């Protein structure tokens, strides 16, 4: 289980997240992503490609870790870790390209939506099953991918939306066969990396500066409701059922 960085062409940082079996990340995993993304830009990468190994891009937080930890330490850790990872991707001084395959649910949407460019394989889909887990979150990020009323429909129902459908909304740049995803992401990364890095960094800061919503503050607001549900005992009921039925293996 790891978050590993490979430097391609001397200027493209390819970060691979690999936590078998489904990339449901423990607390440490979220912080590792934050450090990898921040470190890549600090070390001079011109572009970051964020990808994953295994069956799917991301299955959210590791609910088993949360239920096996006494008190609220894992809950607080997961919330802080997700916040740190999403923030690192959004505030990375260079463009971040998300290469998404298979499933991307829950917290994975925060990583994808805060990226600058999204490429996906033709088997990719996104979903926000938080309500079924007694939690809330990433509404901020889902709203960066689809229009307002579709956000609410997907959020309340937990239904999936495919990469092809997201491409119709303009949030996925390109959908390719799964075997071509990595090369497609590198093609876009190389196109950006070939440009003046001073201008690209200025462009990233400029585009973040004109965003209509402060994504960090908005997501933190959402997290407050998750804490309320946990304090009320609602979340534990749903997470216990989730662990007991092994739903995390059916992503």
From TrEMBL:
Q: Which SUPFAM superfamilies match?
A: ClpP/crotonase
The source's domain of life comes to Bacteria
Q: In the UniProt record, does the keyword Plastid occur?
A: no
User: Which UniProt keyword terms apply here?
Assistant: Lipid metabolism, Lyase
Where would one find the signal peptide in this protein?
Answer: none
Q: Does the keyword Transport apply?
A: no
- Taken from the record, one Pfam family name reads ECH_1
- Indicate the family of this protein: Belongs to the enoyl-CoA hydratase/isomerase family.
Entry protein name:
Enoyl-CoA hydratase family protein
Q: Which organism is it from?
A: Tsukamurella soli
